[in-house]
């Protein structure tokens, strides 16, 4: 009898739509994956800690001197901490977000690909472009189908002073193509800028 009363009370409660519940759960889980452990960075070094973060979030990395992409978290290379330096990051369909960017104290990253990264926003690009190490090392960047990016985020990339190639595609928040082209012609005249925007 008591069980029947309790179950009727629960049934009478309004539930959130199922998709909304799962969206909150995945957002919470992705935030957990992006949490920065500064002790871990100190213990294993920035490249190993960043590799762990990126692979945990679904991205892949390539190290200097290697042709193959590191995709499997459980097969991250071991050995001397200075041996494996991240050269390239492909964050296609990953859940990386701004709170994880403290992992980006990397000195040797030359290429970053952000494709279908739903949590990447203008502030993320601004943070990336303000990291001194990346200002020196970044040569190529691709930003594709990241719906939260606007003109403001793209223009912030002009701080990456050694950037040679920038590809932008399917960014509905980017509205002023000509303004972007002019900003980069002025700040980075040798940049090869490719736009596939509507």
TrEMBL record:
Protein family according to the UniProt entry: Belongs to the ATP synthase subunit s family.
GO-annotated biological processes: ATP biosynthetic process; proton transmembrane transport
Entries under InterPro entries matching the protein: LRR_dom_sf
Keywords (A to Z) from UniProt: ATP synthesis, CF(0), Hydrogen ion transport, Ion transport, Leucine-rich repeat, Magnesium, Membrane, Metal-binding, Mitochondrion, Mitochondrion inner membrane, Repeat, Transit peptide, Transport
Subunit-structure text: Homotetramer. Associates with ATP synthase.
GO cellular component: mitochondrial inner membrane; proton-transporting ATP synthase complex
Compartment annotation: Mitochondrion inner membrane
Keyword Repeat: yes
Coiled coil: none
Lineage: Eukaryota, Metazoa, Chordata, Craniata, Vertebrata
Name used for this protein in its record: ATP synthase subunit s, mitochondrial
Function as written in the Swiss-Prot or TrEMBL entry: Involved in regulation of mitochondrial membrane ATP synthase. Necessary for H(+) conduction of ATP synthase. Facilitates energy-driven catalysis of ATP synthesis by blocking a proton leak through an alternative proton exit pathway.
Protein's organism: Balaenoptera musculus
GO MF annotations in UniProt: metal ion binding
Mitochondrion is among the record's keywords: yes
């Amino acid at each position: 009898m008591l069980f029947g009363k309790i179950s009727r009370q629960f049934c009478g409660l309004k539930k959130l739509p199922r998709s909304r519940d799962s969206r909150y759960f995945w957002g919470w889980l992705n935030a957990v994956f992006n949490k920065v452990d500064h002790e871990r960075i100190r213990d294993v070094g920035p490249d190993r800690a960043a590799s762990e973060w990126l692979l945990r979030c679904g991205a892949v990395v390539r190290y200097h001197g290697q042709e193959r992409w590191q995709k499997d978290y459980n097969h991250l290379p071991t050995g001397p901490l200075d041996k494996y330096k991240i050269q390239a990051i492909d964050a296609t369909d990953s859940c990386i977000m701004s709170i994880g960017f403290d992992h980006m104290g990397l000195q040797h990253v030359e290429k970053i690909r952000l494709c279908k990264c739903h949590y990447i926003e203008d502030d993320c690009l601004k943070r990336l472009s303000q990291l001194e190490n990346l200002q020196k090392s970044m040569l190529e960047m691709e930003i594709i189908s990241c719906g939260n990016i606007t003109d403001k985020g793209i223009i912030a990339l002009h701080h990456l002073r050694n950037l040679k190639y920038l590809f932008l595609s399917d960014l509905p928040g980017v509205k002023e193509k000509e303004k972007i082209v002019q900003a980069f012609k002025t700040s980075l005249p040798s940049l090869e800028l490719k736009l596939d925007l509507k």
